[in-house]
Specification:
The protein is of the alpha/beta class and about 475 residues long. Helices cover about 40% and strands about 20% of the residues. Strand 7, helix 5 and strand 8 form a beta-alpha-beta unit. The structure holds nicotinamide-adenine-dinucleotide.
């Protein structure tokens, strides 16, 4: 079986210890991933540290040029990398057209877009105040070395969100992918690094302890973390010891509220993809759907029609729209929450029973009859099961949406955009969509509130997040 390597200082670095990466569609081992040793982690950080001053000192246009070459390389290698995403993460190969599945090729198209857009952005020197005596300029300086730690759901795209703005602003990076989806990211880093000076982009790999060793190093100047709240808390505790700044993109439990004037048939497809994109394994996906009594049965019926006809299977199969759950831990969590919903009085509209076999296939599952407080409503399922909760008064639905300690995304669905907007501004979430859910854009800041984290990514705000302001006070 092929052993994959990390990239450090522009070179391929194997490790004596390795572990298998598995295809979630059939349980087969697909490659060996290096388990980075402590000295290798230190080496990767040292290489990023050594490369940073020269990278930051490059003329702005030069860094932009490097990133344009990186974007071109991502485009050229899109199929190769997308196949790794399907083989390792499970999402169907898919594509980016109106009739295509938002799968692995869609993820790679996102990687290119989220490289080209930050490459094109600038953070010019700003004059924030001047009077007769002085002019005050704000300059944006890179932090230095950024440690990036990524999850397994959109493994390449989320890595790009962490890497590219950091590089654009003159930082260097050491990234650790999830141990469940390392190969695709290690291969992407290898390809990207071919178009960057040695040491500018480095990787390490392994389980959580490798991530902990990476962030627990005084040479790290900022931490970008995307993953669960519990891991985010551990990293924050380490960061506190070193006073290392962090950006935390954590879990959510996004509520969608359907208003009484919505047309169930018209919104069903949007609700469906809002909840089940990537088998529901998406940070900002609909995880609780609140529907007025008057529309409840019609909305459930429309969603059931879609959920029971969507083909599920190995992501390389022709016509496959839904793949497996990425790993057994997540699969068991989905199974547990569906069982809990049965005990909580929920009715399983469709799905609800894991498929036999080696793959992690769990059918798309809709559950009705639950109330706030049920485990499936209150916990982030991060998988292919959606609770649909009836409400009587809109005020109750708004209170329900806001009652949890997380706030990544939310959405409001209505035929009257002005009315939907009035509800949207009352929801506690980093982004609230109207008549869609989860649509992100490289120019638009994205991040959570409450337990969903702090700091934003994307756009000029995201670029600022990987820089520190420096004020220069100039006499006239
Ligand atoms: P996770 O927290 O289990 O793992 C994320 C990463 O952290 C992995 O690379 C893991 O190896 C590493 N890690 C684990 N323990 C560590 C430690 N002690 N120190 C340092 N690193 C450690 O999360 P996951 O299961 O991979 O991802 C799913 C979660 O991520 C969900 O809650 C989801 O909502 C969230 N998520 C959030 C966003 C967002 O933008 N807000 C995006 C995607 C996923």
């Amino acid at each position: 079986m092929k052993s994959f390597t990390n990239t450090v200082d522009g070179r391929a670095v194997p490790s004596a210890r390795t572990f298998e990466s598995k295809n979630p569609a059939n349980g087969e081992a697909i490659g060996l991933v290096p388990h980075s040793e402590p000295e290798q982690i230190a080496q990767a950080i040292a290489s990023a540290k050594a490369a940073q001053p020269a990278w930051a000192a490059l003329p702005d246009g030069k860094r932009r040029e490097h990133l344009e070459h990186v974007a071109d390389a991502l485009k050229r290698n899109a199929t190769y990398l997308a196949e790794w995403v399907t083989r390792e993460q499970g999402k169907p190969l898919g594509g980016l057209g109106p009739d295509q599945v938002p799968g692995a090729l869609f993820e790679l198209a996102g990687c290119e877009a989220w490289t080209r857009v930050p490459a094109s952005l600038e953070l010019p020197v700003e004059t924030v105040f001047e009077d007769d005596g002085r002019r005050y300029e704000v300059h944006r300086k890179p932090y230095g070395v950024i440690a990036a730690i990524a999850p397994w759901n959109w493994p390449l795209l989320i890595a790009i969100w962490q890497i590219v703005p950091a590089l654009r602003a003159g930082n260097t990076v050491v990234i650790k992918p999830s141990e469940y989806t390392s190969i695709g990211t290690l291969e992407m880093v290898r390809i990207m690094a071919e178009h960057l000076p040695p040491g500018v982009l480095n990787s390490v790999s392994g389980p959580g302890e490798v991530g902990a060793a990476l962030v627990d190093n005084p040479q790290i100047d900022k931490i970008m973390f995307t993953g669960s709240g519990s891991t985010g808390a551990k990293i924050t505790a380490i960061a506190a010891r070193h006073l290392t700044p962090t950006t935390m993109e954590l879990g959510g439990n996004d509520a969608a509220i359907v208003l009484a004037d919505a047309d169930p048939a018209a919104i069903a497809m949007g609700l469906f993809w809002g909840a089940f994109i990537n088998m529901g394994q998406t940070c900002a996906a609909i995880k609780r759907l609140y529907v007025p009594e008057s529309l409840h049965d019609a909305v459930v019926d429309e969603l059931r029609k879609i959920a029971t006809t969507v083909p599920m299977g190995d992501g390389f199969g022709a016509g496959v729209v839904m793949g497996p759950v990425q790993n057994r831990m997540q699969f068991d969590k989905v199974s547990r929450l569906v069982e809990a919903s049965r005990r909580d009085g929920g009715e399983i509209v469709c799905g609800g029973q894991a498929r036999e076999g080696a793959g992690n296939f769990y059918p798309l599952t809709l559950v009705t009859g639950l109330a706030d407080g049920a485990a499936l409503v209150d916990e982030e399922q991060f998988g292919p099961v959606l609770p649909i909760i009836k409400y009587r008064e809109l005020e109750d639905a708004i209170a329900s949406a806001n009652r949890l300690d997380v706030g990544l995304g939310a959405s409001v669905w209505s035929s009257d955009v002005a009315q939907a907007r009035a509800v949207a501004v009352r929801l506690q979430a980093g982004t609230v969509w109207i008549n869609q859910h989860g649509a992100i854009h490289p120019m638009v800041p994205f991040g959570g509130v409450k337990g969903s984290g702090w700091g934003v990514e994307f756009g000029a705000e995201g670029l600022k997040a990987v820089t520190q302001p420096q004020v220069i006070s100039i006499p006239k």
